[in-house]
Structures are given as structure tokens and as C-alpha cells.
Amino acid sequence: MKAILRRLGTTALATLAVLGVGYLTLIAGTFTSTFTGAVWVFAAGALLVYGADAYIQATGQEVGKYLTQFRLGGTTRALLRQLLLLGMVGFAGHDVDSGFWWTVGGAAALFALQLAYDLMLRRVRRLRQLPVVTRNIDLGPLNIPNGPPSWIAQNGMNRVLLLDAPLLAGGIGFAVTAEPVYAAAGALASLATTLVAAAVLTPFLLGSRRIPDTDGVLRFVQDWLRDYRPEVVVYFSGSGDSAYQVNMWLESVSRLPRRPLIVLRERAVAANLGVTAIPVLCVPKANDLMALDFDPAGVCLYPANTGKNIHMLRNPKIKHVFVGHGDSDKIASINPYSKVYDEVWTAGEAGRDRYRIARVGVRDDEIVEVGRPQLDPISTGPTGNTVRTVLYAPTWEGWTDEPGNTSLIAAGPKLIAALLAVPGVRVLYKPHPFTGIRDPRARTAHRRITTLIDAANQAAGAGAGSDSAKRQLALLEQRLARVEAFDERVDEAQRSRDNGRLDSAVIDELNEATEEWHRVYWADQGSTRHLTIQGPRPGLYSCFNQSDLLISDISSVVADFIFSGKPYAITNCVGISDEQFRIENPTAKAAYLLRPDAEGLDKALAAMRDPSADTFADDRRRLKTYLLGPEEPDSQTQFARAVDALYERAATARVESPAAL
């Protein structure tokens, strides 16, 4: 409960309090309605209730979702309002006459109409929920009409439930005056407005019936696959927050000389997928996916090990490859599940050695080194910063409590405090996007760090940036949102229809606006202001380019930063000797190792300031090749060659043993 209250925030809690007080006031007005003025108490409660409920609907606050979880959803609240109204009218002291029956009959008829509206709305949603979500696939032949506006499609039923307001107003008027006309007018007004809402929804219901059923849509998708003839598939399943794992491969895959296709399994991932010109096909149901023929696709790349991978792995015509979403010494990089793939592709020799040492069933001849084609945006060599900059980028706490998963809990605040105490050093803090989702201690450490950074900036008189830069960034965010964000005003089917083809100019605009955003942002922040950096911008690699030293954990962040050639430090929070730590974690071989109390930080800072004090410079150069592969040929070329070689093997296998396939 405490966690829920923290997530809701002050505004939502205030709204919830107003709603609760409103219903208590309604109850008080109902059961004291024989007393003078009690009706006005009821009226005051109604104003509070409708005001709070209308605010919830208008702002889309999460409080509505939590109320539903506790069986206090919109329908329950509406029925409670109407039940209390009947009680108030009945207890008002008037003889039971037509006014009372207008209220009773109006409430009953309104319930029936709202039930019918709910059934209509559910039918529209079922008809418009396609078995697939697509992007860059022309759905014109499916004749998908426009969907209902967002105020109907999103939470529309709860808005219609508020149309009992005239009914309550009429009942209050009748209780005050004993004139049945008020009850009649209120009941008729509620019924009329609900009928209008149903009339508005009807064209969308009739139009949506033209959309083909599931079998028809899947037949269309199969025909499209047959015409497009994909050669390389990128398959991904996960939560919406994990979309970054597939996003990192979009650019590299788009540069392949073969026809690519992105296959997703969750609608949330499709909504969070980065901008790409590659055709995207999201198929949530396993049976639908397994019914599709992806021929002549010969290679399928998997950025993550998830249970739903099995639905594509069962396809014997395709060679299946685990490419992961970053090389590191974490246990996830040697998952025994990886032996189900035909090949495992690693960045360099280090990945091969991890599997050899772990003995999890992945044979050496199944491993191919392809480099890290995503690292091109990382600058190499000195930054030229006038004020040395340290980036602290800890990984998240993970799904287990093993020591060393993250330095954030044991060392984070101490490291930041120590860095902030060093003159002539600027701190950038960029936590992992999953930070704190499992362990509250990580959230506490994160909040402590942000407090330390804010206090240091305040003490130094470092401003929050200029107003002109903020306006520029806001305009750039709007440009980026037009390209990156889905239009929330339309439903999923209409978005799939409208995103049938991406103009290459859109990609150019995105790249241009992103580059300009970063230029304005970094220029405005100056060289001394400490920063807490969260969200998609500025990106991790942009932070690399601004930093002279990285402090991180055992994660792919370290391996990627090694590409820059700059010094880095890792916090040893496992409780073992530094020598043993380096043996168990090859990425730490060229790292300055820190203790949770920040011991060892002085050596890392000295290496950052003075190249002659950088005792690990030569080790880093050797480690870069070991972890990420040789510089020549470049990683994109290695990646493309590996795809081509495996595709040809798959094609040969189909020719040699067609009966088995």
C-alpha cells in the first residue's frame, strides 16, 4: 500500500481524498435527509464527486486504475451515486409520487442504456484489435476505417457513466421543491445525453465491421510476406521497457544488403520501438505466429533470451542466432539457454572464452565474432574538456540479490559524495532505466545521489540553463515527438494503417533533430554543472563522448566505453580480492578498481588528468581488441559477412534436404 501511495504522488492523492470526502458527504446527506439543509449537504457531496471524477477522466490519472483494482471502478462509483440518490429522495419526507418514480425509472433506464453502450464499445474494440500490429507494411487492402476519437476509445465508458449528473441534479431539485418536473427533466436529460453518445459511437461500430476477421488479416499478412520475401528476421519478445534491447540493432540491421524484417511479440514493445524504415510485424499470439511462413528467410537474430523465442525457434528452415544486447561478464552473457541456437555471435574473443570456460553447452564452432556495429557514434581519444568530467553509470539491481549486481546500493552515494568533493571535476550520473524496479534500496540510493548533485549545484551557484536554450530544446522535442511518438489520438489499427510506409526523409529529419538537440543541450549545460541524466536523451553514447572517465559496474556499458580508449573504473562490491575480481571479470583487467568506500578513486582521477599516470593505457588497447574484436574490417562489415555466410548455409540446407524441412 505504501508503495502505491508513493507512486500516485501528491496530486493524485489529493484527488482521491476529494473523491472520498465527496462520497462520505453523499452518504451523510442521504441518511440525514429528514433534517433541514441535508439536501444541500448531498448536493455539495455530488459536486465534489463529479469534480474529482471528471478530473480523473480528463487527466488520465493512475488513481482510476487503482480504484478499479480495489473494486471501486467507474461503474461501482456510478451505481453508488445513484443508489444514494434513491435513498436521499426516498428519505426526503415527500409522499411517494411521480417524482420518486421518475428517479427510480430514470436510474433503471440509464443503467440499461449504459450497459448497451458498454457492449457497443467493447464490440468496436474487438473488431478493431487486429491480430497483428505493423509498421512500414501497407495495410490499404484491409480497408481499415478511422477509429473513434480518443475521448471515446480511451476510457470512454467511464466518461459516459458521468452522464448521470442530470439525474442527480433532477433528484436534488425534486427533494428541495417537491416538484416532479425536476426529477423528470433530470432523468430525461441523462437518458438523452447517453443516447447521443451511443449515436456518436454507432458509425464507428458499423464501419469497423468492414475490417476482415483474424483469418482474413493473417491471410493478408502471409500474402505480404510472400511478396516481400524477407531474408533476415530480428525477433524480439519482452516488456515495453526492454525495447531498447532491440532498438540498438535497428540501425545495423537496416544497413545489411539483405531484406530485413522485425518480428515482435508484444504490443507494448511495438509502441516503444525506435523509428526505422524496416518492416515491423508484431504477432502477439503464438498460434498466429507459428501459422506464418517466413520463407525465404534464412537467418533469425535474437537480441534477448525469452520464453517466447521458442515459437520462432521451432522453424527448421531458418538458422537461429543469439546476438544479445551487449557483451559483459554478467551471468546473463553465458545463459545455458543459448545452446538452443544454431550460432551465438559475440563481439570479440572474450565472448567466445566466456562460453568455453562456463561449459554451458555452446560449442566453440557455434560461436562467431562479429564486433559491435552499434559503437560507431562513440568518439575515441581525449574530449578536450576544460573541466574533467566523470560519468557514473551503474547498472540496475537485477532479479537476484547477488553481491556485485550493482554498485548503486553499496557504493553509489559514497562515490558521488567523494567526486563532488574533488575540485575541478564535473559529475554526470546516468542510472540504468530499470533502476529501483525491484529493490527499494536502489531507489533510496538513487534519490540520495540526486539530492547530493542538486545540493552541489546549488552551493556552486550553477544555474539550470538559459531560457532560450530551454525553448530551443522544447521545440526540438516537439519535432522529435512528431517522428518518434505514436499519435495517441488514434487507435492501434489506425496507426498500423497510417504507418504503412516511412519516408526516408523522416529518418533524416530524426537524425538532424537528434544531433541538434544534443548540441544545444550540452552547450547550454556548460562545463561545470553536475547533471542527473535520465530518459532517452541525452543518450548513453553521447554521455560517453562528454566524459573523461567512466565509473560503472560489470555490464555491457563498460565494454562499450572501452571502445573510446579512455580510462574507466569498476567498483568491486563483491567482497573478493582485486586479483580474483579481475580473473572472474575480464572486462576489469584494464580497470581502476574501487572499493565501496571510494578507495582507489584517487588513482582513477589521476589517470584521467595525466596520461603519464594512466598505468592501464596499454592494457586497455589490448582489451579493446579482446572484447570488441579487431578494428579492421569494421564491425558492420563483419556483421554483414556473418549474416551472408549463415544465410547461404540455410539456403544450401533447404536445397540438400527439402523433405526434412
TrEMBL record:
Keyword Transmembrane helix on entry: yes
Keyword match Membrane: yes
Key words, A-Z: Membrane, Transmembrane, Transmembrane helix
Transmembrane segments: 12-31, 37-58, 78-94, 100-120, 184-206
Protein name: CDP-glycerol:poly(Glycerophosphate) glycerophosphotransferase
Protein's organism: Actinorugispora endophytica
